[in-house]
Amino acid sequence: MNVVVNIGPLSPDDVVAVARHDARVEIAPEALKEIRRSREVIEGLADDVVPHYGVSTGFGALATRHIPTELRAQLQRSLVRSHAAGSGAEVEREVVRALMLLRLSTLATGRTGVRAEVAQTYAALLNAGITPVVHEYGSLGCSGDLAPLAHCALAVMGEGEVRDADGVLQPAGDALAAADITPVVLREKEGLALINGTDGMLGMLLLAAHDLHGLLRVADISAAMSVEGQLGTDAVFAADLQALRPHPGQADSAANLRALLAGSAIVASHRGPECTRVQDAYSLRCSPQVHGTVRDTLAHAELVASRELASAVDNPVVTPDGRVESNGNFHGAPVAAVLDFLAISVADLASIAERRTDRFLDVARNHGLNAFLADDPGVDSGHMIAQYTQAAIVSELKRLANPASVDSIPSSAMQEDHVSMGWSAARKLRRAIDGLTRVLAVELYTAARALDLRAPLTPAPGTGAVRDGLRELVAGPGPDRWLAPEIEATVRYVASGAAVTAAQGAVGDLA
C-alpha cells in the first residue's frame, strides 16, 4: 500500500503500516505547494535585520545571539550535530520509522518553513528502508524529542549512522549514496524544524494503542476461559446488569464474555440448585469492570492522539497568513499524560489476570483440580513457576506505572525550565505492553490446561476454539515438561493475533 502524506492528519493505521509493514509514502501535490508557499516566507526573512528565532538567532538559552547571514546555514548544521547527543541502546526500527513519518507529516502541513526537497528526502529514506540510529536516552519531551529527531536529521544530512533495509549498520552517507539519495544541505530554520516535534512519543503512543486493541480482546478471552475453568458463572455478565453502570468499555467487555461463554457445557454443569456458591471472586466477577476501564482509558488516549495527528508541532511556525510566530506547542504534556494513564491501566489489567491464574493453582480455590494443575502433585510442579514468572512481570508493571509526566528537570540554562518527560513515559509503556502480553499468555496457557482437565465436560465454542488453536502449538496436560518454550509459543499465539482469530472464527467479531 501507499501512504499519501497530505495537508491533514494521517490515520493511526497509516502510521502502523509505514512503521511496521514498510508501506511506501508519497507527498501529495497540494502539500508540496503549501510547503513551497511557506518557504517563501522564511526566505523573505533571511536578510531581515529584525531577529527571528531559529532563522537569525541562536537556540534555547542562546536565542539572544544574533547570527549574521553568512553563518546561518552553519547555524542549522551545528544545531543538528550538537543535538544528536543520544546515548544508550538503539531504539526499535518501528519507532524510528513512526517518528520520521510523523515529522514528515508536520513538514507537509507547510507550517514549518522548510524547502520541499527536505520533506522529499524524508520520504525517500522511509521508502528506501533506511533507518537512522536513534538512542534510548536524550529526550525530555519538551522542545520536542530533540535528540531522537536530531539523529534522524543528521542522517538526512548524510552524517551519523543508519541501518539499511537489511538491517546492516553503516555510515549514513554510504547508505544514501547506495539508494541514490542526495543528502540535504540545511538552510535557514530547517535544522530547527526537523527536531522540534513530539513525534517520537506520539509514534510510540500510536503503536501501543494498536497493540492494546488486540490485547484487550485477549484479556476477555483469557478471562472467559478462567471463569469457565474455575466453574464460575456467566450470569453476572448479563447486559441488563452491566447497563446499570453504563461505561462503554465495560459493556463491550461483558458482551465479549457472554459471547465467549455461550454454549459451555462446563458452565451449564453447575447452574442447578445443587451449586451452593452465591458469587465468584472479584477477579472473575469484576472482569468487565476492570477490562472496561482500560478500554475507556484507551479511547481517551486515542482521542488525544487524533488531535496530535492533526497538529503542526514546531517553533516558530509559519501561520497560514504568513506570520512567523513563537509558541509552546512542542510541549509534550498532552501525550505524556495519556502514556502514563495507559501504563497504569496496563498494570491493572495484568494484575487481575495474574489473580485469576493464581486461583487455578490453589486446591482451596480451584474447585476440584489438582494442586498447581500438576499431573502428579509432589512429583510434578505443574504450572507453579509459570505463575511466579507472571507475578514477577506484574510487579515490574506496577513499577512502570509510576508516572514519568510528574517529573521535570530544568535544562538549557533554565530557559527550558519545565519539561514533560513524555519520551520516557512512552518508553516504559512499550515495556509494559510487552509485559502484559506475557501475563495474558500465561493466563491463557494455564486456563487451557484447566479446560482440558474438566473433560469430559466441554468448553464453549469460543473458548474451545482458542484452546484448540493453542494445542496445535503446545501439548495438553501430562507430566512436567520444559515450560519456557511452551510459554513463548503461547506469547506468540497471543501477540500475533492468532488467539483472537480463533475466537472470532467461532463466535464472530469481538468488541
TrEMBL record:
Tree of life domain: Bacteria
The keyword Zinc-finger is assigned to this record: no
GO MF assignments: histidine ammonia-lyase activity
GO process terms (BP): L-histidine catabolic process
Main location: cytoplasm
UniProt keyword Ligase present: no
The protein's enzyme class: lyase
EC number: 4.3.1.3
Pfam family, one: Lyase_aromatic
This protein's pathway: Amino-acid degradation; L-histidine degradation into L-glutamate; N-formimidoyl-L-glutamate from L-histidine: step 1/3
Keywords: Histidine metabolism, Lyase
Catalysed conversion reaction: L-histidine = trans-urocanate + NH4(+)
Cellular component annotations (GO), alphabetically ordered: cytoplasm
Subcellular location: Cytoplasm
Family indicated by similarity: Belongs to the PAL/histidase family.
Name of the protein: Histidine ammonia-lyase
Organism from which the protein derives: Streptomyces boluensis
Originating gene: hutH
